[in-house]
Automatic annotation (TrEMBL):
Record has Repeat as a keyword: yes
Top-level taxonomy: Bacteria, Bacillati, Actinomycetota, Actinomycetes, Micrococcales
Organism: Agrococcus jenensis
GO MF term list: 5-methyltetrahydropteroyltriglutamate-homocysteine S-methyltransferase activity; zinc ion binding
Pathway this chain belongs to: Amino-acid biosynthesis; L-methionine biosynthesis via de novo pathway; L-methionine from L-homocysteine (MetE route): step 1/1
Gene3D superfamilies: 3.20.20.210
Entry binding sites for L-homocysteine: 430-432, 598
Keywords: Amino-acid biosynthesis, Metal-binding, Methionine biosynthesis, Methyltransferase, Repeat, Transferase, Zinc
Protein name, per record: 5-methyltetrahydropteroyltriglutamate--homocysteine S-methyltransferase
Binding-site residues, Zn(2+): 640, 642, 664, 725
Length: 753
């Protein structure tokens, strides 16, 4: 334990949104990619955006002179920034990676035959980072000075900031190694951190923030000890250069994980929303009492009480539970949000103010007005109409014991075969067809009032006609309506359910220039009236082939929304499930024989810690089953999963009890098929044979190869032929060609069965 504890600011945040209050960075990135602006103009736009954020943070109450303000400011991704900073060029690009922005975009986006770095979700969030690609020859050095430059830039603007970088343990834990175990490269990597720290110290930095969230994830004991050693080496390297180190773990419970590092750090930032305080008495703690991942106002009374209790054990300052990257910039931009709901919320800027208020209070200066307002908002929310809806609660309380159980699969399958008369190896798509410029512009004109609802509906119906005719022409067996009416697969549902509110500017970075606008799930959920039936029934009226109803599942709706924090997630999921069950009943009544309930986010919400997984899988699988169990045995229920490797949750996929499961598989060469077959999965499976993530048209040989792997592992009665995911981001030209090849491949495979 250190005896002379260095001063740390009374309040800080661990990171701030970077896309810009009006998505300025997104526009700059996309303009540069289109060649509409040159390098200098891009750098100027990015700089202006970073400086605007710094000034905003000072205005909101963070101090400018004591390293309270973190500076990170990645163009595209903070893990990519570390890759560039330490010169970790993938072997396939070594010696020929262009310098500057061209090299950065090549790693992020690929070009020609050079594929980009793989993209994966950051811990259990919906943010995607670019996966470092390491091999036995990987070497590291201080190859790029962006982290130093941004510290200097902040200083010139009057802010003595705290540079932030992913720590070495987390960098290696999140990397992919070819022919090498990434953690074995630690001895080469740590000196590069030392060089960065030395450069920062020379530029006048006093603190550095090392983000090491990998320490709180699930690991074997030996791996955890190794990660702790690597984290310690990074900390010691920075301290040897003369910097003070704030170790930030966040994203879960640090207790039991960071204690061995307590003697090495100058301050420790932990997540107290999802975790508990570690036993590190005497170490400067940055207590993450303000939620970095959700948008509810902090209970300031409870937070202050917790802070005061911690302060008896050692020095404490106030922090956020994670970076604020995962919440939108500013609630004040939401002019259309109902004022009462708005009073319950805090976006990034409001959270910064909460941190400042709590820091002042902990120092003895309690702002009674601010505390009173927070108290009033929390009381108001508790009692507000809609937060508790008697009818919704009674319906859930009265669920019969078999509410999550369908009839036996064999019985259902026989009824479905008779009702649907499909060929072996039926072909289908995942739901969306390309969202053309025409559709987007009609939606925008409708939102601006330039196109009336009837005119907009006619544009959409035309699109459905086109999509149905195209699928018939291509010879697909189970058709879709194409989802042209949906702005987003969750927001569209949020707009039609009670208990949800969409935002206008609540963008959160998903990856690179892409951002999503999660809706706020604030109250009890119900579905006042059918909203997908009109579209599906219209599509069905145009064809004799079955058209699939298309719904987003309860887990995905929760995963991609800001969810109420006043009841267990499982209860909220069940409410959504019943709303979906109502929609399925209406689809059946309208003559729809197949309904797909998408759960692409099932894997995303899986807790990082093994011990928390059974409870999660129990409520998530249970909610899906509640949504679908009331369907008639003859109604074929499909589900769709993507975005992740699913090998670890095969049990849960089986537990969903869907009649047909389509799943992303093309890029991993059907890896999941073996896992499912090995598990004895006995219901319909459609492993994707067409990777829709790129405009490439899959060639005949490729499709044949993937399909033969699938037919080798799965019985012919169970196999479906489909793409990996929806087609909304594709163009029509490549879609038509690719689907044509897919149907041909299915025909060839059928001839062989
Ligand atoms: N039905 C949706 C679509 O096709 C599924 C999207 C997804 O899996 N993310 O777009
Ligand atoms: Zn998908």
């Amino acid at each position: 334990m250190t005896t002379t504890t260095p001063a740390f600011p009374g309040g800080t945040i661990l990171g701030y949104p970077r896309i810009g209050r009006r998505r300025e960075l997104k526009r700059a990135l996309e303009s540069h990619w289109r060649d509409a602006i040159d390098d200098a103009a891009f750098h100027e736009a990015a700089r202006a955006n970073r400086l605007a954020d710094l000034q905003r943070l000072v205005a909101l109450g963070l101090r400018a002179d004591d390293a309270s303000i973190p500076v990170e400011g990645a163009h595209y991704d903070h893990v990519l920034d570390a890759t560039l900073t330490f010169g970790a060029v993938p072997a396939r690009l070594r010696g020929r990676l262009p310098s500057g922005l061209a090299g950065e975009w090549l790693l992020a986006r690929g070009a020609g035959d050079d594929v980009p770095l793989e993209m994966t979700k950051w811990l259990d969030s919906n943010y995607h980072y670019l996966v470092p690609e390491l091999d036995a020859a990987s070497n590291f050095s201080l190859a790029d000075t962006r982290i130093v430059d941004r510290f200097v830039e902040a200083g010139a603007a009057g802010v003595h900031a705290r540079p932030v970088v992913v720590g070495p343990a987390t960098y290696l834990a999140l990397a992919k190694g070819t022919g090498v175990r990434p953690l074995d490269l630690a001895e080469r990597l740590v000196p590069a951190y030392a060089a960065l720290a030395a450069a920062l110290a020379a530029a006048g930095a006093t603190w550095i923030q090392l983000d090491e969230p990998a320490l709180v994830a699930d690991h074997e004991d030996a791996t955890l000890a190794e990660l702790q050693d690597v984290a310690r080496a990074g900390i010691e390297a920075a301290r040897a250069a003369g910097l003070r180190v704030l170790l930030h773990v966040g994203h879960g419970d640090a207790a039991g994980r960071v204690e061995p590092l307590a003697d090495a750090v100058d301050a420790l930032a932990v997540d107290l929303v999802r975790g508990t305080a570690p036993e590190t008495d005497g170490v400067q703690l940055v207590a993450g009492v303000v939620h970095g991942r959700n948008v509810w106002r902090t209970d300031l009374d409870a937070a202050l009480e917790a802070l005061r209790a911690l302060a008896e054990r050692g020095p404490v300052s106030v922090g956020t539970s994670t970076t604020l990257l995962h919440v939108p910039h500013d609630l004040d931009a939401e002019a259309a949000l109902e004022p009462r709901l708005r009073s319950w919320l805090a976006f990034a800027d409001q959270k910064v103010a909460e941190v400042a208020t709590l820091a002042a209070a902990l120092a003895g200066d309690v702002d009674e007005a601010a505390f009173g307002a927070a108290r009033a908002a929390i009381d108001d929310r508790r009692a507000a109409p809609g937060v508790h809806d008697g009818a919704v609660r009674e319906r859930l309380a009265a669920l019969p014991a078999d509410a999550r159980t369908r009839s036996p699969y064999d019985d259902r399958a026989a009824q479905q075969r008779a009702a649907l008369e499909l060929p072996p190896l039926p072909t289908t798509t995942i739901g969306s067809f390309p969202q053309t410029g025409d559709i987007r512009s009609a939606r925008a004109r409708n939102a601006r009032g330039e196109l009336d609802d009837a005119g907009y509906a006619e544009v959409l119906r035309d699109e459905v006609r086109r999509v149905v005719a195209l699928q018939e022409e291509l010879g697909l067996d189970v058709l879709v309506h194409g989802e042209p009416e949906r702005n987003d697969m969750v927001q569209y549902f949020a707009e039609h359910f009670d208990g949800f509110a969409p935002t206008q500017h609540g963008w959160v970075q998903s990856y690179g220039s892409r951002a999503t606008r999660p809706s706020i799930l604030w109250g009890d959920v119900a579905r006042p009236e059918a909203f997908t039936v009109e579209w599906i029934a219209f599509a069905q009226s145009l064809t004799d082939r079955p058209v699939k109803g298309m719904l987003t599942g309860p887990v995905t709706i929760l995963a991609w929304s800001f969810v109420r924090d006043d009841q267990p997630l499982g209860e909220t999921a069940d409410q959504v499930a019943l709303a979906l069950a109502d929609e399925i009943a209406d689809l059946e009544a309208a003559g729809i024989r197949i309904v797909q309930v998408d759960e692409p986010a099932l894997r995303e919400l899986l807790p990082l810690r093994r011990e928390a997984r059974p409870a999660y899988l129990d409520w998530s699988v249970g909610a899906f089953r509640l949504a679908t169990a009331a369907a008639a045995p003859a109604t074929q229920i499909h589900t769709h999963l993507c975005y992740s490797e699913f090998n670890t949750v095969v049990d849960a996929i089986d537990g969903l009890d869907a009649d047909v499961t389509s799943i992303e598989a093309a890029r991993s060469k059907m890896e999941v098929v073996d896992a499912l077959a090995g598990h004895g999965f006995g219901r319909g499976i459609g492993p994707g044979v067409y990777d829709i993530h790129s405009p490439r048209v899959p060639a005949r040989e490729e499709l044949d190869e993937l399909l033969s792997i699938a037919t080798g592992a799965i019985s012919d009665e169970l196999l479906w032929v489909n793409p990996d995911c929806g087609l909304k981001t594709r163009g029509y030209a490549e879609t038509v060609e690719s689907l044509g090849n897919l149907v041909e491949a299915a025909r060839r495979a059928r001839a062989a069965v």
